[in-house]
Amino acid sequence: MRHATIYRYALPMDSGVILRHTRLATRDGFIVELRENGQLGRGEIAPLPEFSQETADDAAVQIEQVLLDWLEDKSIDWDTLFPSVAFGLSVALAELHGELPAQGNFLAAPLCSGDPDELVQKLAELPGEKVAKIKVGMYEAIRDGMVVNMFLEAIPDLTLRLDANRQWTPTKARQFAKYVSPEFRSRIAFLEEPCQTPAESLVFAQDTGIAIAWDETVRDDGFVVSTQDGLSAVVIKPTLVGSVQKVQSLVAQAHALGLVAVISSSLESSFGLNQLARLAQWLTPNILPGLDTVDLFGAQLEVPWPNCSLPLVSLSDCDLTWQQTNQ
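Above: the chain sequence. Below: its structure as tokens.
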């Protein structure tokens, strides 16, 4: 017997969360729950506004359609599904079939807010290499360069991951690099997508010696993982990429070419972050994932994130929007 349930949630966000051009007041998404022969599998489906190709309402329609197919034991064509639907459903099936490990990698690279002392305290909790992340590209490039330089100078054993979200022109990217001392640049593990095109980003890396990583480029049509001068990593956001199988393939391709693969969040709830931590432990066990986003929420969902004191919302408090059983 198979049983499928869909819950819809709306969690409050911190008032300062801005996505590209929009302030995000609530995070909306779904939890899919599958039951078969006494086993349970769940997954989160949460399209990210301004980043996902699909809306939450688009996903809602498709989820019901594909769950009807699953209930009838029909094959699922993963490539035809929206990325968020493909990922959430494939995670639920992986958990249902015992493929998703129970253990997770919760040692996420902390997101810097601008205070070196606060970051030092967070880094003290990390064993091994001290890695943190800074969002750049939201303010002036010169300011970003000065901030990055300050952190690297203040914390000698710090390695930074930076993310520019394709916000800079080549001129602004060079302005940023000008304010990062050459002796510190090797401690930038990678800068995600500094320029508006991959070609411009590669030129930036080759001119400055600052390694780059693909993020948005991973989701471009026809993307294939390949080695390129100045490229050190591939950042994979499963909610924006697609099924677990597709994520596995991207990780395997990156590893085969000697590139770092990083599992990263798309502002999933604490429930989804926990599953991403388990996925990271499974596919990239020796790499810190980019999952330090729970503090951007006003509440957690069903499964708490370790050491997070935000209130916890239960699935029973969410809207049960659809359920069906197939005998």
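Residues 69 and 75 are 7 Å apart (CA to CA).
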